[in-house]
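Kindly review this protein for my students:
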Amino acid sequence: MPSPRHNLTAWVVNIVTIGSAGLFFSYILWQILVPNPSDIARKITVSIDGANTGSGVLIEQQGNRYVVLSNWHVVSTDNRPLAARSLVITTGDGRKHLVTTPQISRVGKLDLAILEFQSRDRYQVATIGNSDTLSEGEVVYVSGWADPSQQISTRVYQFLVGNLSGRLDRPVARSIPQDGYALVYTVNALPGMSGGPVLDSRGNLVGINGRATVDLRTGTVNTVLGIDINRYLRASGKLPDRTWRKYN
């Protein structure tokens, strides 16, 4: 007859085994159900080429019509949209889509622009997150198509990881510049990545990357700013009253 101690040991081993199996299957389920931000970013990020270069993010599809959100400074000169037939959007599959002046519009006074193109191909669009829930220290991801450099002769897709380090919309709302930059994060974004998405840990779109300051002594980026997605939703009239907190 097994001793009580033997029975206790067997019981503990069984519990540990079951627990380990549960953790393993939970991990597998997590991998299946929770999308990888890197995979999402690659599909929803586009490059923009013309008189200026930049990036953008696919945010909407209606039939064959796609909407891209980017920075206004990427698609304008002297505060006016670039001349007709001067912008090309390249999607993740390498296809190029022409954008004309009537398909470009500014979002209020923000440094944001909407671009439209037509395609029969099917592309993934971003899932809009809630930028109000972001906290300092939280992981954020920034993607975009960096301009050529001394080492790389062509534009290259980049996926960068950093942390939200500050928010300019707290505690004094009046301190927010009219162009909308309010997110501060530790990502050394490169030229050409302006207009690309800022994603949270679940791959939701929570901002648009767009401004960086460079230390003149070292030549390195020391501050990177983005426009939070709720500011875009408010300016475009798409921020639901009951489920989202509006800004003052």
Remarks:
- The domain at 40-118 is CATH 2.40.10.10 (Thrombin, subunit H).
- DSSP finds three helices and 15 strands in the chain.
- Residues 110 and 177 are 9 Å apart (CA to CA).
